[in-house]
Amino acid sequence: MTRLSPALLCLVALLPPLPAPAAEVDHAQIRDGALEVLVRQVGAFRSATASLNNVAEDVCAERAAPETLALAVGDAWRAWAPLDSYQFGPVEQAGAALSINFWPDKKDFVGRGLDALQALPEDVQARADGVASVSAAAQGLPALERLLTSDRPVCPAALGIAAHVQAVADALYEGWFSSDGWAQLMRTAGPANPVYLSDEEVTRTFFTAADFGLERVAEYRLGRPLGDYDRAFPRRAEAWRLGLSASIADAQLEGVAELVEGAFAPAAPEETVDRYFTVSKAARERLAAIKPPLHEAVDDQMGHLRVEAVQTRVQELRTILADDMGPVLGVETGFSAADGD
Questions:
Q1: Closest CA to 115 of 73, 77, 157
Q2: Which of 116, 165, 232, 294 lies at a C-alpha separation of 20 to 30 Å from 195?
Q3: Angle at 119 between CA 115 and CA 123, to 5 degrees
Q4: 104-129: pLDDT as tens digits
């Protein structure tokens, strides 16, 4: 038998212990937590669009001022922001990412689409199916914003657009949560499933969606108006005409935080979760403190720096997900959230 020298035994004793094997990840629990978050978020959007439709009817019947429609558009846009992260499944099937929020709009497709819509007979403009017959750019929230902030007549086109937005929201809810909806497809992951061969693939889908949501905030909602050190682009900001840019970005950050808390946090180390929420809170507080509105702030030297600081925090959140949380969950970010992979 080989004998170890006393010196070698002492050296072995001083070596750090081997890391404990990672606990098995309960991907079914992650899936259920994510779907609980999603049913609240899709439900909130459905409710906000129903209110938007009611307000549009009141405004066009002259029972309410146009300002109330602007407030309802803001509420619906913020309710949509969390869903922007989930560009797969029902969102992809319904083309909702474009029809609800056609942005970025680099060539004024919204304006062109509204020209086509408002050239139709008024009774057609006022119907959801009439709106569905024109470009997706004229079917959603940016089109309502344009009606409210231009010389165009608000009604009857606002009636049809609001009704169309509500119809899409209803379709999204049914597409997710009907008896044979996408949620059920996720619950039955396995070899016979046409999309998800395992619960781990469902986890990866939601994890990629969380990263995509953060990317949308950092690279688009903040990055597009920021431009670079030489030039900012204020009018590239989302919903700048109604001054909603910062609140929409905040709503998406909140939506991702809800997904992290409800789905990933129970399976992740406490210190990683705490770090994520500390950075998320800092990003949202900095965003809320930016004055004047974001599209104006980026054109000011100090304001530009403040928006950049928020962007840095959001990028840090992506790093926490990719480097600290993903490996523990047995997944990594990859592909686009629109791929559903």
A1: 157
A2: 165
A3: 125
A4: 999 999 999 999 999 999 999 999 99
DSSP states along 168-218: HHHHHHHHHHSTTSHHHHHHT-STT-SS-SSHHHHHHHHHHHHHHHHHIII
Whole-angstrom Cα distance, residue 307 to residue 316?
Answer: 14
What is the mean pLDDT of each successive set of 10 residues along the chain, which is 341 residues long?
44 42 82 99 99 99 96 99 98 97 97 98 98 98 98 98 99 98 98 97 98 98 93 97 98 99 97 98 98 95 96 98 95 57 42
Q: How far is CA 273 from the centre of its chain?
A: 20
The answer for 335, left when phi > 0, alpha when psi is -120 to 50, beta otherwise, is left
> What is the pTM (predicted TM-score) of this model?
0.91
pLDDT in tens, 37-77: 999 999 999 999 999 999 999 999 999 999 999 999 999 99
- 3-state secondary structure labels for all residues of 4-24: CCHHHHHHHHHCCCCCCCCCC
Query: Which tokens belong to 48?
Result: 């906000």
Of how many residues is the chain composed? 341
